[in-house]
Design brief:
Blueprint lengths: L2 H23 L6 H9 L17 H9 L3 E7 L2 E6 L4 E5 L5 H11 L2 E5 L5 H24 L16 E3 L15 H15 L1 H5 L8 E5 L6 H12 L3 E5 L10 H16 L2 E6 L2 H4 L9 H18 L6 E7 L7 H4 L4 E6 L5 H12 L10 H6 L6 H17 L7 H13 L10 H19 L7 E5 L9 E4 L10 H22 L9 H16 L29 H28 L1 H14 L1 E3 H10 L15
Parallel strand pairs: 1-4, 6-9, 6-10, 7-8, 8-9
Antiparallel strand pairs: 1-2, 2-3, 5-7, 11-12, 11-13
Helix pairs in contact: 1-5, 6-8, 9-11, 13-15, 15-16, 17-18, 17-21, 18-19, 18-20, 19-20, 21-22
Protein backbone atom coordinates (compact mmCIF):
# COMPACT_ATOMS: atom_id res chain seq x y z
CA UNK A 1 0.00 0.00 0.00
CA UNK A 2 1.47 3.35 -1.04
CA UNK A 3 1.89 6.33 1.23
CA UNK A 4 -0.83 8.21 -0.67
CA UNK A 5 -3.40 5.49 0.06
CA UNK A 6 -2.43 5.51 3.73
CA UNK A 7 -2.93 9.25 3.90
CA UNK A 8 -6.29 8.94 2.12
CA UNK A 9 -7.55 6.21 4.48
CA UNK A 10 -6.52 8.14 7.59
CA UNK A 11 -8.07 11.33 6.19
CA UNK A 12 -11.36 9.45 5.56
CA UNK A 13 -11.43 8.15 9.11
CA UNK A 14 -10.78 11.64 10.41
CA UNK A 15 -13.64 13.06 8.31
CA UNK A 16 -16.10 10.42 9.56
CA UNK A 17 -15.08 11.07 13.14
CA UNK A 18 -15.48 14.79 12.60
CA UNK A 19 -18.99 14.30 11.15
CA UNK A 20 -20.02 12.11 14.08
CA UNK A 21 -18.63 14.57 16.57
CA UNK A 22 -20.34 17.43 14.77
CA UNK A 23 -23.72 15.69 14.84
CA UNK A 24 -23.30 14.89 18.52
CA UNK A 25 -22.35 18.40 19.46
CA UNK A 26 -24.95 20.17 17.34
CA UNK A 27 -28.05 18.20 18.43
CA UNK A 28 -30.91 20.75 18.63
CA UNK A 29 -29.25 23.47 16.52
CA UNK A 30 -30.68 24.94 13.30
CA UNK A 31 -34.03 23.44 12.12
CA UNK A 32 -33.96 20.54 14.57
CA UNK A 33 -37.11 21.73 16.31
CA UNK A 34 -39.07 21.82 13.02
CA UNK A 35 -37.73 18.34 12.18
CA UNK A 36 -39.11 16.99 15.47
CA UNK A 37 -42.59 18.28 14.61
CA UNK A 38 -42.37 16.60 11.20
CA UNK A 39 -41.26 13.35 12.85
CA UNK A 40 -44.17 13.54 15.29
CA UNK A 41 -46.67 14.12 12.46
CA UNK A 42 -47.94 17.29 14.08
CA UNK A 43 -49.20 20.03 11.78
CA UNK A 44 -46.71 22.68 10.84
CA UNK A 45 -47.30 26.39 10.72
CA UNK A 46 -48.16 28.08 7.47
CA UNK A 47 -47.13 31.48 6.31
CA UNK A 48 -44.13 33.53 7.43
CA UNK A 49 -42.20 32.16 10.34
CA UNK A 50 -41.29 34.13 13.41
CA UNK A 51 -37.55 34.54 13.90
CA UNK A 52 -36.54 32.78 17.11
CA UNK A 53 -33.20 31.57 18.54
CA UNK A 54 -32.35 27.86 18.12
CA UNK A 55 -32.60 27.35 21.89
CA UNK A 56 -34.13 29.27 24.78
CA UNK A 57 -33.99 28.91 28.54
CA UNK A 58 -36.61 26.84 30.36
CA UNK A 59 -37.82 29.97 32.17
CA UNK A 60 -38.39 31.70 28.80
CA UNK A 61 -40.49 28.70 27.70
CA UNK A 62 -42.67 29.06 30.81
CA UNK A 63 -43.11 32.77 30.04
CA UNK A 64 -44.26 31.95 26.47
CA UNK A 65 -46.67 29.34 27.84
CA UNK A 66 -48.17 31.84 30.33
CA UNK A 67 -48.59 34.38 27.47
CA UNK A 68 -50.57 31.79 25.40
CA UNK A 69 -47.93 32.16 22.65
CA UNK A 70 -47.28 28.38 22.36
CA UNK A 71 -49.21 26.48 19.67
CA UNK A 72 -47.66 23.02 20.01
CA UNK A 73 -44.98 20.98 21.84
CA UNK A 74 -42.95 17.85 20.98
CA UNK A 75 -40.91 16.11 23.68
CA UNK A 76 -38.04 13.76 22.77
CA UNK A 77 -35.80 12.59 25.62
CA UNK A 78 -34.75 15.85 27.33
CA UNK A 79 -35.29 18.10 24.30
CA UNK A 80 -38.62 20.02 24.12
CA UNK A 81 -39.44 21.46 20.68
CA UNK A 82 -41.72 24.53 20.70
CA UNK A 83 -43.97 25.97 17.93
CA UNK A 84 -45.48 29.40 18.45
CA UNK A 85 -48.74 30.77 17.05
CA UNK A 86 -46.66 33.17 14.95
CA UNK A 87 -45.04 30.21 13.12
CA UNK A 88 -41.67 30.24 14.86
CA UNK A 89 -39.74 27.19 16.07
CA UNK A 90 -37.34 26.90 19.00
CA UNK A 91 -36.40 24.41 21.70
CA UNK A 92 -35.33 24.18 25.30
CA UNK A 93 -33.44 21.66 27.36
CA UNK A 94 -35.81 20.11 29.86
CA UNK A 95 -34.47 19.72 33.42
CA UNK A 96 -34.45 16.13 34.66
CA UNK A 97 -37.79 15.08 36.17
CA UNK A 98 -39.73 18.08 34.80
CA UNK A 99 -41.67 16.13 32.11
CA UNK A 100 -44.84 15.66 34.31
CA UNK A 101 -44.89 19.36 35.13
CA UNK A 102 -44.65 20.30 31.44
CA UNK A 103 -47.47 17.90 30.56
CA UNK A 104 -49.68 19.39 33.29
CA UNK A 105 -48.97 22.98 32.28
CA UNK A 106 -49.56 22.18 28.57
CA UNK A 107 -52.88 20.51 29.34
CA UNK A 108 -54.01 23.46 31.48
CA UNK A 109 -53.10 25.87 28.68
CA UNK A 110 -54.81 23.76 26.02
CA UNK A 111 -51.55 23.15 24.11
CA UNK A 112 -51.07 19.86 22.26
CA UNK A 113 -48.06 17.88 23.55
CA UNK A 114 -46.63 15.03 21.45
CA UNK A 115 -44.12 12.44 22.69
CA UNK A 116 -41.38 10.78 20.56
CA UNK A 117 -39.62 7.60 21.73
CA UNK A 118 -35.83 7.86 22.36
CA UNK A 119 -33.49 6.51 19.64
CA UNK A 120 -30.78 3.91 20.12
CA UNK A 121 -27.72 6.10 20.74
CA UNK A 122 -25.13 3.33 20.89
CA UNK A 123 -23.65 4.16 17.48
CA UNK A 124 -23.29 7.82 18.37
CA UNK A 125 -21.78 6.95 21.74
CA UNK A 126 -19.34 4.64 19.98
CA UNK A 127 -18.30 7.32 17.51
CA UNK A 128 -17.80 9.84 20.27
CA UNK A 129 -15.76 7.38 22.32
CA UNK A 130 -13.54 6.55 19.32
CA UNK A 131 -12.52 10.14 18.66
CA UNK A 132 -9.99 10.43 21.55
CA UNK A 133 -8.59 6.98 20.74
CA UNK A 134 -8.04 7.87 17.09
CA UNK A 135 -6.49 11.21 18.03
CA UNK A 136 -3.97 9.42 20.25
CA UNK A 137 -3.44 6.39 18.01
CA UNK A 138 -2.67 8.32 14.82
CA UNK A 139 0.47 10.16 16.05
CA UNK A 140 1.70 7.01 17.82
CA UNK A 141 1.52 4.97 14.60
CA UNK A 142 3.17 7.80 12.71
CA UNK A 143 6.07 8.19 15.16
CA UNK A 144 6.72 4.48 15.70
CA UNK A 145 6.84 3.86 11.97
CA UNK A 146 8.87 6.96 11.20
CA UNK A 147 6.28 8.86 9.12
CA UNK A 148 4.07 8.08 6.16
CA UNK A 149 6.82 8.22 3.57
CA UNK A 150 9.48 6.68 5.80
CA UNK A 151 7.97 3.45 7.01
CA UNK A 152 5.01 4.89 8.90
CA UNK A 153 1.74 3.11 9.71
CA UNK A 154 1.73 -0.13 7.71
CA UNK A 155 5.31 0.29 6.43
CA UNK A 156 7.37 0.08 9.60
CA UNK A 157 10.99 -0.72 8.71
CA UNK A 158 11.07 1.14 5.41
CA UNK A 159 14.39 2.87 4.76
CA UNK A 160 14.41 6.54 5.83
CA UNK A 161 16.94 7.42 3.11
CA UNK A 162 16.36 10.67 1.27
CA UNK A 163 16.27 10.26 -2.50
CA UNK A 164 17.60 13.24 -4.45
CA UNK A 165 16.55 13.20 -8.08
CA UNK A 166 19.35 14.05 -10.55
CA UNK A 167 17.21 16.89 -11.93
CA UNK A 168 17.13 18.52 -8.48
CA UNK A 169 20.76 17.85 -7.58
CA UNK A 170 22.47 21.11 -8.44
CA UNK A 171 25.88 20.07 -7.08
CA UNK A 172 28.90 19.51 -9.29
CA UNK A 173 32.67 19.40 -8.87
CA UNK A 174 32.71 23.16 -9.53
CA UNK A 175 31.02 23.63 -6.13
CA UNK A 176 33.67 21.58 -4.27
CA UNK A 177 37.13 23.13 -4.11
CA UNK A 178 40.39 22.35 -2.35
CA UNK A 179 40.18 18.55 -2.64
CA UNK A 180 41.63 17.91 -6.08
CA UNK A 181 43.18 14.53 -5.18
CA UNK A 182 39.85 13.21 -3.91
CA UNK A 183 38.03 14.54 -6.99
CA UNK A 184 40.50 12.74 -9.23
CA UNK A 185 39.88 9.45 -7.39
CA UNK A 186 36.13 9.89 -7.66
CA UNK A 187 36.29 10.81 -11.33
CA UNK A 188 36.65 7.12 -12.15
CA UNK A 189 33.34 6.42 -10.41
CA UNK A 190 31.65 9.10 -12.47
CA UNK A 191 32.99 7.60 -15.68
CA UNK A 192 31.71 4.17 -14.64
CA UNK A 193 28.23 5.45 -13.82
CA UNK A 194 28.05 7.22 -17.17
CA UNK A 195 29.35 4.28 -19.22
CA UNK A 196 29.59 0.95 -17.32
CA UNK A 197 30.29 -1.08 -20.50
CA UNK A 198 33.59 0.74 -20.99
CA UNK A 199 35.02 -0.92 -17.88
CA UNK A 200 33.26 -4.26 -18.26
CA UNK A 201 34.55 -4.78 -21.81
CA UNK A 202 38.07 -5.39 -20.48
CA UNK A 203 36.91 -7.76 -17.74
CA UNK A 204 37.46 -5.33 -14.87
CA UNK A 205 34.96 -4.35 -12.22
CA UNK A 206 34.39 -1.18 -10.31
CA UNK A 207 34.85 -1.09 -6.54
CA UNK A 208 31.62 -1.84 -4.71
CA UNK A 209 32.24 0.79 -2.10
CA UNK A 210 34.30 3.90 -1.52
CA UNK A 211 35.07 5.22 1.94
CA UNK A 212 35.72 8.95 2.35
CA UNK A 213 38.01 9.54 5.33
CA UNK A 214 38.92 12.87 6.85
CA UNK A 215 38.40 15.35 9.68
CA UNK A 216 35.02 17.05 10.14
CA UNK A 217 34.20 19.86 7.74
CA UNK A 218 36.47 18.85 4.87
CA UNK A 219 33.66 18.34 2.36
CA UNK A 220 33.01 14.59 2.34
CA UNK A 221 29.24 14.95 2.01
CA UNK A 222 29.57 17.62 -0.68
CA UNK A 223 31.91 15.36 -2.63
CA UNK A 224 29.40 12.50 -2.61
CA UNK A 225 26.60 14.79 -3.82
CA UNK A 226 28.89 16.26 -6.47
CA UNK A 227 29.65 12.76 -7.80
CA UNK A 228 25.93 12.10 -8.21
CA UNK A 229 25.46 15.51 -9.80
CA UNK A 230 28.30 14.97 -12.28
CA UNK A 231 27.08 11.48 -13.19
CA UNK A 232 23.43 12.66 -13.30
CA UNK A 233 22.16 9.63 -11.35
CA UNK A 234 19.78 9.32 -8.35
CA UNK A 235 21.39 9.91 -4.95
CA UNK A 236 20.24 8.07 -1.80
CA UNK A 237 21.45 9.90 1.31
CA UNK A 238 21.17 8.53 4.85
CA UNK A 239 23.00 8.85 8.15
CA UNK A 240 24.39 5.76 9.83
CA UNK A 241 22.49 6.59 13.02
CA UNK A 242 19.15 6.32 11.18
CA UNK A 243 19.61 2.56 10.77
CA UNK A 244 20.01 1.72 14.44
CA UNK A 245 16.80 1.82 16.47
CA UNK A 246 15.64 0.58 19.85
CA UNK A 247 13.49 -2.12 18.19
CA UNK A 248 15.55 -5.22 17.43
CA UNK A 249 15.47 -6.11 13.75
CA UNK A 250 14.21 -2.75 12.52
CA UNK A 251 17.68 -1.58 11.45
CA UNK A 252 18.27 -4.71 9.37
CA UNK A 253 14.90 -4.23 7.65
CA UNK A 254 15.82 -0.66 6.80
CA UNK A 255 19.10 -1.82 5.26
CA UNK A 256 17.27 -4.34 3.07
CA UNK A 257 14.71 -1.73 2.07
CA UNK A 258 17.42 0.77 1.13
CA UNK A 259 19.31 -1.60 -1.15
CA UNK A 260 16.07 -2.89 -2.69
CA UNK A 261 15.06 0.67 -3.57
CA UNK A 262 18.55 1.45 -4.90
CA UNK A 263 18.51 -1.53 -7.27
CA UNK A 264 15.24 -0.25 -8.75
CA UNK A 265 16.85 3.16 -9.39
CA UNK A 266 20.18 1.84 -10.75
CA UNK A 267 22.49 3.31 -11.81
CA UNK A 268 22.59 5.31 -8.60
CA UNK A 269 24.67 6.20 -5.54
CA UNK A 270 23.99 5.21 -1.94
CA UNK A 271 25.67 7.62 0.49
CA UNK A 272 25.90 6.67 4.19
CA UNK A 273 27.18 9.60 6.24
CA UNK A 274 28.81 8.96 9.63
CA UNK A 275 28.98 5.27 8.76
CA UNK A 276 30.82 4.56 12.02
CA UNK A 277 27.42 4.73 13.77
CA UNK A 278 26.35 1.50 12.04
CA UNK A 279 29.75 0.09 11.09
CA UNK A 280 31.39 0.24 14.50
CA UNK A 281 33.45 -2.77 15.51
CA UNK A 282 31.32 -5.66 16.82
CA UNK A 283 31.93 -6.79 20.37
CA UNK A 284 30.67 -10.37 20.15
CA UNK A 285 27.20 -9.75 21.55
CA UNK A 286 26.12 -8.68 24.98
CA UNK A 287 22.39 -8.26 24.61
CA UNK A 288 20.22 -5.17 24.37
CA UNK A 289 21.31 -2.52 21.90
CA UNK A 290 24.43 -4.50 20.94
CA UNK A 291 22.27 -7.20 19.35
CA UNK A 292 20.43 -4.63 17.24
CA UNK A 293 23.69 -2.97 16.18
CA UNK A 294 25.30 -6.29 15.25
CA UNK A 295 22.25 -7.42 13.28
CA UNK A 296 22.18 -4.15 11.35
CA UNK A 297 25.89 -4.33 10.53
CA UNK A 298 25.61 -8.00 9.52
CA UNK A 299 22.75 -7.14 7.16
CA UNK A 300 24.78 -4.29 5.67
CA UNK A 301 27.70 -6.64 5.02
CA UNK A 302 25.39 -9.18 3.39
CA UNK A 303 23.79 -6.55 1.15
CA UNK A 304 27.18 -5.23 0.00
CA UNK A 305 28.23 -8.78 -0.86
CA UNK A 306 24.94 -9.42 -2.62
CA UNK A 307 24.87 -6.68 -5.23
CA UNK A 308 26.71 -6.97 -8.50
CA UNK A 309 28.86 -3.98 -9.53
CA UNK A 310 27.44 -4.31 -13.02
CA UNK A 311 24.07 -3.25 -11.61
CA UNK A 312 25.40 0.29 -11.40
CA UNK A 313 24.91 0.78 -7.64
CA UNK A 314 27.88 2.50 -5.96
CA UNK A 315 28.08 2.69 -2.17
CA UNK A 316 29.90 5.69 -0.68
CA UNK A 317 30.53 5.99 3.05
CA UNK A 318 31.97 8.88 5.04
CA UNK A 319 33.52 8.96 8.50
CA UNK A 320 36.07 10.83 10.58
CA UNK A 321 36.57 7.78 12.83
CA UNK A 322 38.03 5.02 10.62
CA UNK A 323 39.78 3.50 13.64
CA UNK A 324 36.47 2.25 15.11
CA UNK A 325 35.13 0.58 11.95
CA UNK A 326 34.71 -3.20 11.86
CA UNK A 327 37.50 -4.88 9.83
CA UNK A 328 34.92 -6.90 7.91
CA UNK A 329 33.56 -3.65 6.46
CA UNK A 330 36.96 -2.62 5.09
CA UNK A 331 38.04 -5.84 3.43
CA UNK A 332 38.32 -6.06 -0.39
CA UNK A 333 34.94 -6.69 -1.99
CA UNK A 334 33.14 -4.28 0.32
CA UNK A 335 34.74 -0.88 0.82
CA UNK A 336 37.53 -1.58 -1.64
CA UNK A 337 38.83 1.94 -1.98
CA UNK A 338 39.55 4.55 0.65
CA UNK A 339 39.78 8.22 -0.31
CA UNK A 340 41.42 10.63 2.13
CA UNK A 341 39.82 14.07 2.29
CA UNK A 342 42.11 16.19 4.45
CA UNK A 343 42.28 19.84 5.37
CA UNK A 344 43.18 21.96 2.32
CA UNK A 345 46.66 23.32 1.66
CA UNK A 346 47.36 26.92 0.66
CA UNK A 347 46.21 26.41 -2.92
CA UNK A 348 43.10 24.58 -1.75
CA UNK A 349 42.22 27.33 0.72
CA UNK A 350 42.50 29.94 -2.03
CA UNK A 351 40.10 27.93 -4.20
CA UNK A 352 37.63 27.39 -1.34
CA UNK A 353 37.65 31.06 -0.38
CA UNK A 354 37.13 32.05 -4.02
CA UNK A 355 34.05 29.81 -4.20
CA UNK A 356 32.49 31.26 -1.05
CA UNK A 357 33.43 34.87 -1.88
CA UNK A 358 31.58 34.80 -5.18
CA UNK A 359 28.37 35.83 -3.43
CA UNK A 360 29.94 38.70 -1.46
CA UNK A 361 30.43 42.34 -2.34
CA UNK A 362 34.16 42.61 -1.63
CA UNK A 363 36.43 45.57 -1.13
CA UNK A 364 38.97 45.84 -3.95
CA UNK A 365 41.85 45.26 -1.51
CA UNK A 366 40.55 41.86 -0.38
CA UNK A 367 42.46 38.98 -1.99
CA UNK A 368 41.80 35.29 -1.19
CA UNK A 369 45.54 34.56 -1.07
CA UNK A 370 46.07 37.02 1.81
CA UNK A 371 43.36 35.35 3.88
CA UNK A 372 44.50 31.84 2.91
CA UNK A 373 48.04 32.50 4.16
CA UNK A 374 46.71 33.44 7.58
CA UNK A 375 44.42 30.42 7.96
CA UNK A 376 46.63 27.28 7.93
CA UNK A 377 44.86 24.24 9.32
CA UNK A 378 41.38 25.58 8.52
CA UNK A 379 38.94 23.10 7.02
CA UNK A 380 36.51 23.93 4.22
CA UNK A 381 33.71 24.40 6.75
CA UNK A 382 35.92 26.73 8.82
CA UNK A 383 36.64 28.86 5.76
CA UNK A 384 32.95 29.01 4.82
CA UNK A 385 32.16 30.11 8.37
CA UNK A 386 34.95 32.70 8.23
CA UNK A 387 33.58 34.25 5.03
CA UNK A 388 30.04 34.33 6.43
CA UNK A 389 31.17 35.90 9.71
CA UNK A 390 33.10 38.57 7.79
CA UNK A 391 29.99 39.45 5.79
CA UNK A 392 27.89 39.70 8.97
CA UNK A 393 30.48 41.87 10.72
CA UNK A 394 30.72 44.22 7.72
CA UNK A 395 26.93 44.51 7.58
CA UNK A 396 26.76 45.18 11.33
CA UNK A 397 29.30 48.00 10.93
CA UNK A 398 27.30 49.53 8.07
CA UNK A 399 30.10 49.07 5.53
CA UNK A 400 29.45 49.24 1.79
CA UNK A 401 31.66 46.20 1.13
CA UNK A 402 33.41 43.42 3.03
CA UNK A 403 36.96 44.63 3.72
CA UNK A 404 40.08 43.07 5.26
CA UNK A 405 39.24 44.52 8.68
CA UNK A 406 36.02 42.48 8.65
CA UNK A 407 37.95 39.33 7.72
CA UNK A 408 40.48 39.95 10.51
CA UNK A 409 37.68 40.40 13.03
CA UNK A 410 36.00 37.25 11.73
CA UNK A 411 39.25 35.28 12.06
CA UNK A 412 39.63 36.41 15.66
CA UNK A 413 36.06 35.37 16.38
CA UNK A 414 36.56 31.93 14.80
CA UNK A 415 39.93 31.34 16.51
CA UNK A 416 39.25 32.86 19.92
CA UNK A 417 35.46 32.98 20.21
CA UNK A 418 33.05 35.88 20.49
CA UNK A 419 33.90 38.75 22.81
CA UNK A 420 32.11 38.78 26.17
CA UNK A 421 32.17 42.48 27.01
CA UNK A 422 29.35 42.05 29.53
CA UNK A 423 31.55 39.88 31.79
CA UNK A 424 32.74 41.90 34.76
CA UNK A 425 36.22 41.11 36.12
CA UNK A 426 37.83 42.61 39.21
CA UNK A 427 41.12 44.49 38.90
CA UNK A 428 42.93 41.60 40.58
CA UNK A 429 41.46 39.06 38.13
CA UNK A 430 42.40 41.24 35.14
CA UNK A 431 45.96 41.63 36.46
CA UNK A 432 46.32 37.90 37.02
CA UNK A 433 44.93 37.14 33.54
CA UNK A 434 47.29 39.70 31.98
CA UNK A 435 50.37 38.06 33.55
CA UNK A 436 49.08 34.58 32.62
CA UNK A 437 48.72 35.50 28.92
CA UNK A 438 51.95 37.52 28.96
CA UNK A 439 53.73 34.40 30.23
CA UNK A 440 52.45 32.35 27.29
CA UNK A 441 53.39 35.06 24.79
CA UNK A 442 56.89 35.70 26.16
CA UNK A 443 57.82 32.00 26.22
CA UNK A 444 56.50 31.66 22.66
CA UNK A 445 58.74 34.56 21.54
CA UNK A 446 61.76 32.83 23.07
CA UNK A 447 61.09 29.39 21.56
CA UNK A 448 62.42 29.33 17.97
CA UNK A 449 60.46 26.15 17.16
CA UNK A 450 57.14 27.57 18.37
CA UNK A 451 54.54 28.74 15.89
CA UNK A 452 54.61 32.53 15.43
CA UNK A 453 52.33 34.63 17.58
CA UNK A 454 49.17 36.00 16.04
CA UNK A 455 47.51 37.85 18.92
CA UNK A 456 47.27 38.04 22.69
CA UNK A 457 44.20 39.31 24.53
CA UNK A 458 42.71 39.54 28.00
CA UNK A 459 39.27 40.30 26.55
CA UNK A 460 37.05 37.38 27.61
CA UNK A 461 36.21 35.37 24.50
CA UNK A 462 34.21 32.16 24.32
CA UNK A 463 34.91 30.20 27.51
CA UNK A 464 38.31 31.83 28.18
CA UNK A 465 39.18 34.93 30.19
CA UNK A 466 42.13 35.54 27.87
CA UNK A 467 44.01 33.87 25.06
CA UNK A 468 47.26 33.77 23.11
CA UNK A 469 46.87 32.59 19.51
CA UNK A 470 49.75 31.24 17.43
CA UNK A 471 49.50 30.46 13.73
CA UNK A 472 51.94 28.31 11.74
CA UNK A 473 53.72 30.02 8.86
CA UNK A 474 53.01 27.12 6.50
CA UNK A 475 51.02 23.91 6.30
CA UNK A 476 52.50 21.19 8.47
CA UNK A 477 51.94 17.46 8.01
CA UNK A 478 54.11 16.31 10.94
CA UNK A 479 55.68 17.76 14.07
CA UNK A 480 59.27 17.48 15.25
CA UNK A 481 60.31 16.70 18.79
CA UNK A 482 61.68 20.24 19.12
CA UNK A 483 58.30 21.65 18.07
CA UNK A 484 56.46 19.50 20.61
CA UNK A 485 58.81 20.51 23.42
CA UNK A 486 58.37 24.17 22.46
CA UNK A 487 54.58 23.76 22.62
CA UNK A 488 54.91 22.20 26.07
CA UNK A 489 57.01 25.11 27.31
CA UNK A 490 54.52 27.65 25.94
CA UNK A 491 51.67 25.75 27.64
CA UNK A 492 53.49 25.99 30.99
CA UNK A 493 54.23 29.73 30.55
CA UNK A 494 50.90 30.88 32.00
CA UNK A 495 51.14 28.86 35.23
CA UNK A 496 54.82 29.80 35.71
CA UNK A 497 53.97 33.51 35.37
CA UNK A 498 51.32 33.15 38.06
CA UNK A 499 53.79 31.40 40.38
CA UNK A 500 56.52 34.03 39.91
CA UNK A 501 54.29 37.09 40.35
CA UNK A 502 51.62 35.95 42.83
CA UNK A 503 53.23 33.00 44.59
CA UNK A 504 52.35 29.29 44.69
CA UNK A 505 49.42 29.89 47.05
CA UNK A 506 47.74 32.35 44.64
CA UNK A 507 47.79 30.32 41.42
CA UNK A 508 44.38 29.78 39.82
CA UNK A 509 42.45 27.19 37.86
CA UNK A 510 43.09 29.14 34.65
CA UNK A 511 45.85 26.73 33.62
CA UNK A 512 43.55 23.68 33.53
CA UNK A 513 43.32 23.55 29.72
CA UNK A 514 47.09 24.15 29.41
CA UNK A 515 47.87 21.28 31.77
CA UNK A 516 45.47 18.95 29.97
CA UNK A 517 47.00 19.76 26.58
CA UNK A 518 50.55 19.34 27.90
CA UNK A 519 49.70 15.97 29.45
CA UNK A 520 48.13 14.76 26.22
CA UNK A 521 51.17 15.76 24.14
CA UNK A 522 53.61 14.23 26.61
CA UNK A 523 51.68 10.94 26.81
CA UNK A 524 51.61 10.65 23.03
CA UNK A 525 55.35 11.36 22.91
CA UNK A 526 55.90 8.41 25.25
CA UNK A 527 53.23 5.94 24.11
CA UNK A 528 52.91 6.57 20.36
CA UNK A 529 55.79 8.53 18.91
CA UNK A 530 58.80 6.86 20.54
CA UNK A 531 60.22 10.13 21.95
CA UNK A 532 61.13 8.78 25.38
CA UNK A 533 64.71 7.63 25.94
CA UNK A 534 63.71 5.40 28.86
CA UNK A 535 60.87 3.58 27.07
CA UNK A 536 62.42 3.51 23.61
CA UNK A 537 60.82 3.01 20.21
CA UNK A 538 57.85 0.99 21.43
CA UNK A 539 54.17 1.82 20.82
CA UNK A 540 52.27 1.31 24.06
CA UNK A 541 48.97 2.65 22.78
CA UNK A 542 46.64 0.07 21.27
CA UNK A 543 44.92 0.86 17.98
CA UNK A 544 41.47 0.74 19.60
CA UNK A 545 42.52 2.36 22.88
CA UNK A 546 40.80 5.56 24.04
CA UNK A 547 42.24 8.61 22.32
CA UNK A 548 43.10 10.25 25.63
CA UNK A 549 45.21 7.45 27.08
CA UNK A 550 46.55 3.95 26.62
CA UNK A 551 45.26 0.42 27.01
CA UNK A 552 46.20 -0.49 30.58
CA UNK A 553 45.20 -4.11 30.00
CA UNK A 554 48.00 -4.48 27.45
CA UNK A 555 50.81 -3.71 29.91
CA UNK A 556 52.00 -4.55 33.39
CA UNK A 557 51.62 -2.25 36.38
CA UNK A 558 55.34 -1.53 36.37
CA UNK A 559 55.23 -0.45 32.72
CA UNK A 560 52.21 1.79 33.38
CA UNK A 561 54.04 3.37 36.32
CA UNK A 562 57.11 3.90 34.14
CA UNK A 563 54.97 5.62 31.48
CA UNK A 564 53.36 7.90 34.05
CA UNK A 565 56.75 8.78 35.47
CA UNK A 566 58.16 9.62 32.05
CA UNK A 567 55.13 11.78 31.18
CA UNK A 568 55.62 13.66 34.45
CA UNK A 569 59.32 14.17 33.69
CA UNK A 570 58.62 15.62 30.23
CA UNK A 571 56.06 18.09 31.61
CA UNK A 572 58.40 19.04 34.48
CA UNK A 573 61.20 19.80 32.01
CA UNK A 574 58.83 22.07 30.06
CA UNK A 575 57.85 23.81 33.30
CA UNK A 576 61.51 24.42 34.17
CA UNK A 577 62.20 25.67 30.64
CA UNK A 578 59.40 28.24 30.90
CA UNK A 579 60.50 29.28 34.38
CA UNK A 580 64.03 29.99 33.14
CA UNK A 581 62.76 32.24 30.33
CA UNK A 582 60.36 34.24 32.50
CA UNK A 583 62.87 34.62 35.35
CA UNK A 584 65.57 35.95 33.02
CA UNK A 585 63.16 38.30 31.25
CA UNK A 586 61.09 39.54 34.20
CA UNK A 587 61.10 43.20 32.99
CA UNK A 588 59.69 42.11 29.62
CA UNK A 589 57.00 40.08 31.42
CA UNK A 590 55.95 43.14 33.46
CA UNK A 591 55.93 45.40 30.40
CA UNK A 592 53.85 42.97 28.35
CA UNK A 593 51.34 42.43 31.16
CA UNK A 594 50.95 46.18 31.67
CA UNK A 595 50.39 46.69 27.93
CA UNK A 596 47.66 44.05 27.98
CA UNK A 597 46.00 45.79 30.93
CA UNK A 598 46.10 49.09 29.05
CA UNK A 599 45.04 47.90 25.57
CA UNK A 600 43.42 44.47 26.21
CA UNK A 601 44.47 43.08 22.79
CA UNK A 602 47.92 43.12 21.15
CA UNK A 603 48.96 41.80 17.74
CA UNK A 604 52.30 40.13 16.98
CA UNK A 605 54.15 43.30 15.99
CA UNK A 606 52.97 45.17 19.09
CA UNK A 607 54.04 42.27 21.33
CA UNK A 608 57.49 42.13 19.76
CA UNK A 609 58.00 45.90 20.03
CA UNK A 610 57.07 45.93 23.74
CA UNK A 611 59.23 42.93 24.60
CA UNK A 612 62.22 44.17 22.56
CA UNK A 613 62.09 47.60 24.23
CA UNK A 614 62.31 45.82 27.60
CA UNK A 615 65.35 43.83 26.49
CA UNK A 616 63.60 40.49 25.98
CA UNK A 617 62.60 38.14 23.16
CA UNK A 618 64.45 35.97 20.70
CA UNK A 619 65.54 37.56 17.43
CA UNK A 620 64.50 34.41 15.54
CA UNK A 621 60.88 34.95 16.55
CA UNK A 622 60.70 38.51 15.26
CA UNK A 623 57.75 38.98 12.86
CA UNK A 624 58.81 38.95 9.22
CA UNK A 625 57.12 42.31 8.64
CA UNK A 626 59.62 43.90 11.07
CA UNK A 627 62.76 42.38 9.60
CA UNK A 628 64.99 44.97 7.98
Amino acid sequence: MTAKWKVAILAGIAVLCSIGTYVALTWGDGDESRALFEEAGVGLANGSAESLPDEIAYSDFLRLLDQNAVAGLVLKEDRLAIRTHAGGYTSTLLPEGFAPEVAARAGAAGVELAFLPPEDGRFMDLMISLVPALILLGPILYLVGGGFGRGGLLGIGRSPAQLIDPKRNGFSFADVAGVEDAKEELGEVIAFLKDPTRFQSLGGRMPKGLLLLGPPGTGKTLLARAVAGEAKVPFFSISGSEFVEMFVGLGARRVRSLFRAARKQAPCIIFIDEIDAVGRRRNGGGGGGHDEHDQTLNQLLVEIDGFDPSEGVVLIGATNRPDVLDPALLRPGRFDRQVNVGNPDLKGRIEILSVHMRKLKLDEKVQPIDIARGTPGFSGADLANLVNEAALIAARRGADAVDMAAFEAAKDKVLMGAERRSLTMSDEERRLTAYHEAGHALVALNEPDSDPLHKATIMPRGRSLGMVVRLPERDRVSATRAKLEADLAVAMGGRVAEELIFGAARVTTGAAADIEMATHIARNMVCKWGMSDRLGLVAYAEENAPSTGYDKAAMTDSTAALINGEVRAIVDRAHARARTVLTEQAPALDALAQALLDRETLDAEEIWTIVASAGGGDAASRPSSLHS
